[in-house]
Amino acid sequence: MPLGEFAIIDRFFRDAGLVREDVVLGIGDDGAILRPPAGFDLIAVSDTLVEGVHFPAGAAPRSIGHRALAVNLSDIAAMGAEPAWSLLALTLPRIEESWLAEFTIGFATLAREHGVALVGGDTTRGPLTLGVQVMGFVPEGRGLRRTGGRPGDLLCVSGTPGDAAAGLASLRRAAGTTCDSPDAAERQLRARFEYPTPRLALGRALRDVASACIDVSDGLAGDLDKLAVASGCTAVLDLDRLPRSAALQSRVQTGGLSARDALRLALAGGDDYELAFAVPPARRAALEPWLARGEVTLIGELIEKQSGEVAEGAEGGNVLLRRGTEPLSAADLRSLDARGFDHFAP
Amino acid sequence: MPLGEFAIIDRFFRDAGLVREDVVLGIGDDGAILRPPAGFDLIAVSDTLVEGVHFPAGAAPRSIGHRALAVNLSDIAAMGAEPAWSLLALTLPRIEESWLAEFTIGFATLAREHGVALVGGDTTRGPLTLGVQVMGFVPEGRGLRRTGGRPGDLLCVSGTPGDAAAGLASLRRAAGTTCDSPDAAERQLRARFEYPTPRLALGRALRDVASACIDVSDGLAGDLDKLAVASGCTAVLDLDRLPRSAALQSRVQTGGLSARDALRLALAGGDDYELAFAVPPARRAALEPWLARGEVTLIGELIEKQSGEVAEGAEGGNVLLRRGTEPLSAADLRSLDARGFDHFAP
Q: Which of A181, B190, B316, B336 sits in a 20 to 30 Å window from B94, CA-based?
């Protein structure tokens, strides 16, 4: 017998996050009652995953649970905030207890890791869709935005963009075969898609360092373009400095991926959930520990806004691609086709 | 050429709600920056509408926009809170500018009426789904819950439950015909489904009056059952006292609806977005203005929790149905089949 809506909420989600003292009333009423701390701004983010759009049909439910929360925590990280409370709107075509149990493990494990309580939500019947909303805090007036970058600021990115898109491509290939035997590199790339890491500690560290910050979800070039546009600048991105993981590198070396495809994935693959940000040169020293550990890479700079058609970003072309100090040729640019991933683009 | 995701957000939603001073940063970044007032608890609610489940395929987009926000404002009302900020997760199969324009009018008109700012959200491609989250405030410690009812408390409901379900049935009949000529009563009933009224002023007034409160979304009997269970009581519901609108009454008088069907709609129809609540007898005087205006009706009382199979609620049977002081016969109960609407019920 199928479980009722209320039984689902009770059984799977009531204890799916951390217990927090600032949750006066959690799941089980018409709304949650929450007590925000004094002296902090509230950050609210919302992101939805749809089966077949944001993850392949038949994806592992544990990965779906992880990703549904992770993509929202990544937005919280980009604001420099500390996550606290989440709501989950779960639309399911049918009830499968084993699916729900796995989904909940994925969601709850990440929630507990980052101190997030699940305080409410709803379940409805329909095409598989995960709507998550997360609230968090940042000391008053200190939330990071996309708008504060200035000419001369250094551009940085965390992690190794492109891995997640390579992992997704690998998962898609596997879905079409009966025998799937991924090597270690391929498994690592798949994990970057299935279990992305929201960069919360980095986001908090950037509060007093970055002039502008964005999370890389739609592809590095497109998201840098958004940051540059919001900051009234043009971004210069040095392709020779793009970080590349050993796993992606090995896929190129073994011939599984062309060098051009690897570059396209890094620029426009999407699903990275890394942070891209601008740092005034005077504050560069604060980055050194992150640079030394290889967790952050310098990839370019902001310059005065250039007029005309300069680049390859998703929304208006405000990113100049270079190799070292050399601009790319028009043919190189066309062959890259490094547009950001836009859900409604033609 | 289709609009890009960012163009959609810009064009339709950037000004879709009220401008509020406590919104430090609204739509256009990774998250919203909000400034909660001191001395208040934050109320967070989330509700999702799916095409074909919560509204018929092809429903008027203005109605969909109104309902997506209204069902959430109804939850805010049930907590006794004042709404402030909303997030909209819009999943669309395709971009139609005229549809979006109408949807936005429905959403924004209601948002402005209740002082709600639209501070964020996202758009994705997929089956038509509206995920809305609303945040509001209530003075610290004074949020209404389902749990505070005590034996002897009076049970009340706002409005006239059943109208929305009758309206939905009328809309469904119309969808199957080429000539639709609803009379005034039918138009009124349809409006109760398409444009429900969140009872925010009543919810705030109940802060110091009601011992427990719930919003009636899944059917009066089922939602009263939840309130009774949460309060550790049994609800006694007098069918002779159920409020009935002139429009529904006229549908019965003209033979468009049987008396039994009208009663079933009132008990279990759903989509009412009225408030059902318990009031200690000593505070009854505070209700008089609402009772005198016919905006609230006394429909029963809470009693000590009864053991055994007593009733017809959705989740455990904790509602006793009576006519005056007479219990209904078992056959009467069966014929009513007054279960609450449960999205995953068998």
A: B190
Q: Please answer whether residues B70 and B196 qualify as being in contact, where contact means their C-beta atoms are separated by less than 8 angstroms.
A: yes
Mean pLDDT computed over every residue of chain B: 89
How far does B105 lie from chain A, in Å, by closest CA? Answer: 22
DSSP state of A53: T
Q: Which amino acid is present at B129?
A: T
The pTM of this model reads 0.92
Instruction: Give pLDDT, residue B256.
Output: 85
C-alpha closest to that of B279 among B264, B295, B298: B298
**Tokens encoding B157:** 């409901």
The Cα–Cα gap between A308 and A21 comes to 54
The helix/strand/coil state of B326 is strand
The whole-angstrom separation of Cα B82 and Cα A268 is 43
pLDDT per position as a tens digit, A95-115: 888 999 999 999 999 999 999
| B193 and B316 fall within a common domain | yes
Average pLDDT over residues B97-121: 94
Residues B69 and B176 in one domain: no
Residues 6+ apart with CB under 8 A from B223: B214, B215, B216, B217, B276, B340
In this predicted structure, what is the pLDDT of residue A154? Answer: 98
Residues 6+ apart with CB under 8 A from B217: B71, B74, B223, B270, B271, B272, B273
| Residue B138 touches chain A, beta carbons under 8 Å | yes
Taking the Cβ of residue B340 and every Cβ of chain A, the question of whether any pair is shorter than 8 Å is answered with no
Residues 164-223 of A with CB under 8 A from B: 213-215
Q: 67-126 in A: which are within 8 Å (CB) of B?
A: 75-76, 78-79, 81, 85, 87-89, 91-92, 95, 119-126
Q: Is the dihedral of CA A19, B68, A37, A28 positive or negative?
A: negative
Same domain as B170, residue B30: no
Pick from A83, A104, A139: which residue ends a domain?
Answer: A139
Side-by-side strand order, sheet with B82-92: A23-25, A32-34, B40-50, B129-139, B82-92, B117-125
- State the complex-level ipTM: 0.91
Q: Which amino acid is present at A194?
A: E
Asked if B220 and B260 sit in the same domain, the reply is yes
Query: Same structural domain for residues B133 and B158?
Result: no
Structure confidence at residue B340 as a pLDDT band (50, 70, 90)? very low
**Weakly modelled stretches of chain A, pLDDT under 70:** 1-7, 9-10, 17, 308-317, 330-331, 333-346
* Same domain membership, residue A283 and residue A233: yes
The residue type found at A178 is: T
